[in-house]
Structures are given as C-alpha cells and as structure tokens.
Amino acid sequence: MDRKAFLDQEAPAGYVAGIGRGATGFTTSADVGSASRIVPDNDYEDDDDDDGPKNEEEIDERGLLVRGGVDNDDDEADKIYDEVERRLSHKSKKDKENSDAQPSVTSAFADLKRALSSVSEDQWANLPEVGDLTKRNKRLRLLEKSQQRFYAVPDTLLVGGSNGGAGESTDFNSISKTKDKLLSKQLDSVVGNTGEGLTNQIDENDFIIDQTTDNKIDDIRKGRLIFSSLRKTEPLNPNSWIASAKLEEQDRKFSTAKSLIENGCQKIPRSVSLWLENIRLHHSDGTKHCKLICGQALKFNPKSEQLWLKAVDLEHPSDFLSQRRILMKALESVPDSVGIWKKLIELEGEESKEEDIKKLLSKAVEFCPKEWDFWLSLINLSEYSEAKSIINRARKIMNDNYKIWITAAKLEERENEDISEAKLSRLMSKGVDELKKHTVDKSKLLSKEDWLHEATIAEGEGFLLTCKAIVKIALQTEEEDEFNIDPSSSRVDDWLSLADGFSKFTETSNNIFQIIISKYPTKIDVWLKLLDSFKKTKNEKPDPRLFEYYEQMVKINEDEIFYLMYAKDLWKLNTDIDKAKEVLERAGTLFPFSESVWFARIKFAKYTSGTSWVEESLAVSTKMFQRISDNSSAAWYKHIHLLRCSYSKNGKPVDEYLTTLCDEALDKFPDCGKLYLQKSQILQDVDTLAVGVRRCAQFIPLWINYAHAVKSNPVRARAILDNSITQNPSSPLLWVERIRFEKQLNNFDSARQLCTKALQKFPSDANLWIENLHLISKISQRKNAFMDSLKKTNNSSIILMNIGLFFWIDGKFTKVKAWFERALNSDEGKLNGDCWGWMFKYFGLYGTEDEMNEFLQKFSDVYDEINAGETWTKLSKSINRDRFDRPVEFLGEVSNSLVSNTPMLELKR
Amino acid sequence: MGSVFLPHLHTGWHVDQAILSEDERLVIVRFGRVYERECMIMDEFLFGIAEKIKNFATVYLCDIDEVPDFNSMYELYDPCTVMFFYRNKHMMCDFGTGNNNKLNFLVGDKQELIDIIETIYRGARKGKGLVISPIDYSAKH
C-alpha cells in the first residue's frame, strides 16, 4: 500500500479539525444512552497499574464500579437484566435450532450471489433506482430553489444596453463575472464583518456601472477617432460623414451630428444620400427647416427622384396644390422618372377628372415608354379606336411584352360583342410570333403554365373568348417546341393533368379539353371529362354548349352508347323530349340491329307517351321484331309483356297469337326461366311451371310461383319447396318462402325451427331476420332480436322499416316515424318502394299537410330510380300498371297493398 | 496485530487530509481505542481485507483519545466506530440498528465487512448518501 504524503507532515498550528473540509456532525437520538460508557483515561490507567493486563470487559466493569460504588438497586437491576438476558439467549438458541433446520436465506441465494461477479460495471451503474426514500431529490430541489439568484439591475444598466445599437455591444460576460464576485463578497460578509460587507457591495455596484459606461464611452471615443481620420483621408466619401453623424446621434449629441452632416453636405453637395440623412436629422426641427434643406439639396441635385419625392412627402398630405406644384416642377427637371409620374397620377386620380388623367397618362407614356402600367391604365381609359392605336404604339416600343397582346385580345372582346374566337386566336398567335421574333432571351418566353395562368386571370375578369385563345396559344407553343405532333398518349395525359390542375377554373380546363379533343377526337375519356365538366356547372338549365359537344362527339365517334347518353341527357337535363326522340331515331337508323338502342326507344316511348304508352311502346317493339330476326330472350320477354299489357288494357282475352308467341320464344330459349314464368302467368298453368322448374332449376322465382300455384295441396307444395332448397342451397329467398308457407298453415313451431336453421346458414340476410322477428311472440325478447338483426345485417333498411312497423302494431306512433325516416335516409332504403309506401300511409293517417308535401317532393325526386321493395316491384311489373299513371297514385296503391298484406296492423285514425 | 500495519492518523488535520485525499475510493476511518477487544477484532478484520478492497477503499485508524476533536461531532464513545467517507461526504448505511451514521458493532466475519464496504462504495458511486446494508443487524445488536 502506498503511503500518502500527508501522513508524514506536521499538522498546522491552531488547526480546527473538521472545519477545513466543512464537516458537519450529527446527533443520533437512538444512540445517546451509551454515552455514559465514556471512561476517563486516568481510571483505566490506575487499573492497569494495579492489576496488570486483564481482559477488557473486566476492566470496564471495574472502572464503572470504582467510580459509581456498589448499590443495592444496581444489584437488583443487574439481576433483572441478567434474567432478561438469559431468557433472550434461551430464545435465540431455540431460534437458531429452528433456523438450522431450514437453509438460511443467504445460503439459499448463495449461487445467485456468486453470479453477481459476472455483472459488468455498466450494468451496476444502470441498476434501477428505488424510489426517493431519503427524500434526496426533494432536498436537492429545495436547495436549488434557494440557490437561484435574483438581482435588481440598476436602470443605468438598462439604458446603456438599449443605446448600444449597431456599433458596440454590452459585455455581458464581464458583468456576470463581477456579479459572481459580488456574490462571493456578500457571502463572506455574512460570515465576517457585516458593516464592511455592505459598503463593499455598494462600491461593487458603482464599479459595474462605471465599467459599462466606460466601455461605451471607450467605444464611442474609438469610433470618433476612426471616423475623423476617415473624414480626413476620404473627405469626398459621403458614407464616412453619414456614419460619424449617426455615431453622434447615438451618443445623443444631436447638435454635433447636425453640424457634421451639414459640413458633409457642403463638402459633397451632389450626394443625395447625404442630403436625405441631413433632412432626417433635422426632422425634429420642424418641416419648414427640412423644406429649406430639401430646396438646397434640389438646387444641387435637380435630377434626383428620391429628393423630389422627399420634397412631396414633406408637404402636408392634404395640401394637394403644393404637392402637385412640386411634382410638376420635378417633371420639368426629370421628365422620365417613373416614380414621380406614378405619384402624380395617383394624386390626380383622387382629385381630378378622367380627361385630365388621360392627358397625364399619355404624357407619361411619352416620357416613360417602357412602363407597362401607364400603357394599361391609358388603354383602359380610352375609347376603342383610340385604345387600338395606343396598343399599336405600345407594341412598337415594347415588342417583347406578352401583356400587350393579351390586353389587345381583351379589348377586342370587350368592344366587339360578336367577335369570333378564331379572330382572337389569330391575334394571339400573331402576338406569339412577334414575341418570339423580338425576345432576345428565349428563357423569358412564357411557358405553358404561365400562359394558362394568364388564361385563368382572363377567365376571372370575364373574358371567356380571350381565355380560350390564350389556352390555345399555350398548348400550341408547346407543340411547336417539340416539333413532333404524333398523338402520343403522354402528351394527352400531360394536358389532362394540366386541366386537372386548373379544375377550379372551369373555363380554362374546358378549353384545354376542347383543344385536346380537336387534336385527338377519338379520345373517349377526354370527351367524357369535357361533358362532365359541363354537367357540373349546370344551373337551372344546362349549358347549351354541352349538347353542341354531344352532337360533335356522336358525329366523330359513332357508338350507340354515346347516342344513348346524348338522348338521356337531352331528356333528363334539358327536358327536350322532341330532340331526344330525334336523336334516338337517328341512332335507330344508324344502328338498326342494336338491341340496346331499341330498348332505349321502348323505354323512352313508355315514359313520354302519357296514357297511350302501351300502344306507343308496343309499336316500337313490333318494329324491332320486324328489323331484327334473332332477338335475345330479353327482347322476347319485353315484347310479350307489352302485348299482355295492351291486352289487359283493351280487355282482350288471351288468344292464340299470344300463346304461340310464348311457345316460339320458349323454343328459341328453352333455358330462360323468365319466359316460363311469363307463360305460366298468361295461361294460369301449373304444367308450364313444372316444365320450367325442370329446365331452369336455378331460377328462384319459378320455384316460388310453382309452390304458390299448388298451395291448395300443402304436402305437394312443401315437397316442391324442399326440393327447391336442396337444388339451390345458397338462396335465402327460398327459405323465406318456406317459412312463410309454414306460417300460413299456422305451423309456427316448425316455422321457428326453419327460421333458426336458415339464420344459421345466412346470418346476414335481412328478409330472414324479418321473418324471425315476426315469429317472436314475446315483446320482451323482441327488443334484443331487433338489436341482433340490425347488427348482423349492418343496419339494413328493410329491417329498420320493419322495426318501425312493429312499433306501429304496438301503437307507438312517434317512434314509427323515426324508424321509417331512418330507413329512408339510408342509400339502400331510398330506392326501396316499400319504405316509401309505408311512409306515405303513415303521413296519410298521422302526418300534417306540410310533412306530406315535403315527403311527396322527396318521393318524386327519386321516383325514377326506385327499383326495390317486394310489393313495389310486384305492382310495377304487373300488367295493370297503367291504371296508376301518376307516381303518387301508384304509391297509394303500393301502400294499400302493403297494409292489406299485414293483417296484424289495425289502422286507427 | 492489524493496528500496527494500518496507517494511523494522529491529529484532526491528518484525519481531514485523509478524508480529502481520495477522489475515487472510499475512505474508511476506524475511530476507537486499540486496547479494547472489539476494536482489536475490528482492526484484525480491516487489516485482513485491506489488500482485497484496495481498489475501491482505503483504511485509516484513529485513536479517539489521541484525537478527541471529532468525539462530539461524530458521537464517538463506542470502543470501536467505523465511518465511511466518499469525496468528503459522510456515507450513511442503514444497518437496521437505528444508527445509520456509523458501524459501531462487530460484524460476523470479514466477508460481511467486505460486502458492506462494497455496497457503500456502489451507492457512493451513484451519488447516494445512504445505502441499505446487505445484512440486517437489527436482531443481533
């Protein structure tokens, strides 16, 4: 072991132990008792002499005894303590025996303890800390808080800091150092003489202030020296004069500053900046003095725009006349100053007439021909012919300014109501040619995007034709740049993305589309985009240009679909039935063998012919049959259906013609279930259904009708339904039918069984859930079933409707409306005719007139799109459909039929 | 025996210097009287382990009769008191005896003493002022 040096040194005299290292003692309340065991030195020395070396305990004991003497009480106490001791040792012996039996905790963890040797230094250091048991953190926090120092800074410091602007900066470092010193002095003073400390502190404070001000003064002094030498060496450099004046100003020696700057002005009277600085410094002396200086300055610098403008500024803003006088004077000496002209025109614009301004502008244009703003305002103020000549003049002067051409186009459009777009485009392209010729720097030519931006501005100002012309130019410039005009799709895509970028500006994007189309007329998607953008902007009536473009499109792209779209938009958006019919007929002549065109014509005839729709559409479909020899099954079906309608309308019984037609259709399409169904309906014939079921086992309605037809024989009907289910295991409709069948026979138990079985197979089928809900007898169970069904079917609209119906049956009318509305508000429910029918009934019974009207309004909006609802579709396909021509009447019929199908509902008024 | 070989501190100044002299190691000062039995055993222990713990601790002995300067400050009246310092900070250790300031009893064997010293050193390295002794002496003393 190395021996430390201090061990061999002498201790300094008068050293007080512990204080040198700041040691603090402690008092342990728990441990005071044993202090009595301190033994004076001499005692044991005596013992030592007497008895020689002995065991320490004895000596100790002796010493005590010698000092205190033997006492009876002590003896007794000793005895008691001995007894206690004995008891305790006895007990601890027992404990020891017990603990020997079991392995001690240390031995149990011995191996783990050994494993600690492998723990690295880092791991030790990173052991998680226990909570703040000793409140150390809290103590530290308090300590920190008490150590935070705050100082009251004298105002002089702050003032000095704010004045030290550009030239010099306060030395914060030295300040903080002195502060630290100050603090340590203060601390010392707490220990030592308090009175002396206080005076020290004050001295120190003064010292700080002295130092900082000294610093500043030093800096300024230095600056002065430098600047004065500068002034001597470079007396013609205005900057040195200005800088010295500013330095003096910072030092708040304004008079010196002023005299300096005046000196400067005398030395260099042609320096505008010096004069301006001079005026600025003299601002505090009132404007009159400033004006004087300004006048002097202008004497030397009559060409300075800055000084003239300053002179105008110095005039009182309401003193219009003198301002104008100064400006006029200014123009006399500097006629080509844009700033002064602008100021003058601005001034005149507030006060005088258009004529005067125009005169001014024309003068301004003469003197400052390169300033486009003057030209523009002059053009805007002039008459058409005058403006034209002005533009021409401007063009000669600024032959590389694109704005001239755009303005020209706008002017043409404004003045000539009926100017053609081609003329404007010609103008613009001429402009572009000119621009190309005269622009030296080709990169300054406008890019496609810049042109389009100009187009949007024109659109915003209402110059639609100009906008179009500009767009054309924009796309042309690019084309010519690249020299290859092949219809590459990338070009079109590029333009399309451009159009998308300008989609906020409808006209601009439309124009882009139009140009693409004129270049590549076979691009269908561009056509569609163009048409869409026209449709988007529709107000009451769609833009007539929409149909113009339709016309063009169908001419270029001969496709039946475009004709159909055209006709539909004519009919729906423009309600122009005649035109639509004409278009359809044209399509018919162009595509005589297209069934979709024929179907469209039939549909059109059906919806536009009023009461005679049956005859009209039948005529069309007969024509179709004459034209097309090999019709599809759908055509056959439609035709026969129309025939049936016509028969039922005229009260004609089923005749040979109809049946032969049916047979003919079936011969051609023996696998079409619809035709079988139709035939069975015509003939009221079970056999047809039997045949149909055999041929088209996948066609569900055929099975259902078959089962209905043999309803009188329940056993057979059940067999048919079971058979159908085995053949079509994936159709929930058949299950529904099966459950209904059992219900009709009052076999509720088996219906329930079937229902649970079906729901296991199709847990999300709304119709099955409805059957299930109807089969639940207890109202208390129903509520849970409602929740289940809604969850499983994802809030199906017909479930919502049926829940409303249940509330109706229970007589809770307010809830009914809420549920029906919920059903109708969903997208799917909006197209369900049954929902509308129920709502109609409800409003008819309980609603107010306003509610009813609003409801009918909504209904007529969606009437054409309604395509779902069991009762609705049944009725709408029925051959007696024409009895209910108006939508409302039909709705009434639907609702009546719905009510009659729901026997549980007792309608109360 | 051990007391002969371990360095003795003869004045308060030496004690202070000893405590201040170490930057990285624990300073262990045994205050007591050499002739007392407990003290002798403790000295024996300390001498025995001094070489083993030399990397993280250094041991000094101080006679409380020769240097009475700290007796009142540190309540030194036991035959043997071992105190721990680290970077001039008095390290405390919770032995379960109620007095965390010092070790004023006899530990079972040298290993126990090593364990205690190491624990104190680990705590001191982490900046703690008080550590929990690895062995609880509340039942024994």
User: How confident overall, as mean pLDDT of chain B?
Assistant: 92
What proportion strand of chain A?
under 5%
What is the CATH homologous superfamily assignment of chain B? Glutaredoxin
By DSSP, the count of extended strands of chain B is 6
Largest interface: A-B, 36 and 45 residues
**SSE pattern of chain B:** HEHEHEEEHE
Largest sheet of chain B: 6 strands, mixed
How does this model look, in words?
The complex is a heterodimer of chains A (909) and B (141). Chain A is 73% helix and 0% strand. Chain A has 49 helices and no strands. Chain B has one domain: 3-Layer(aba) Sandwich (Glutaredoxin). Chain B has 4 helices and 6 strands; from the N terminus they run αβαβαβββαβ. Chain B has a 6-stranded mixed sheet with strand order 1-3-2-4-5-6. In chain B, α3 (37-50) packs across α4 (110-125). The chains are: A mainly alpha (909), B alpha/beta (141). The A-B interface holds A 1, 3-4, 6-7, 11-12, 15-18, 20-28, 30-31, 34-35, 37-38, 41, 55-57, 124-125, 129, 133-134, 136 and B 7, 9-21, 35-37, 50-51, 54, 58, 65, 67, 69-70, 72-75, 77-79, 88, 90, 97-99, 101, 104, 122, 125-126, 128-130.
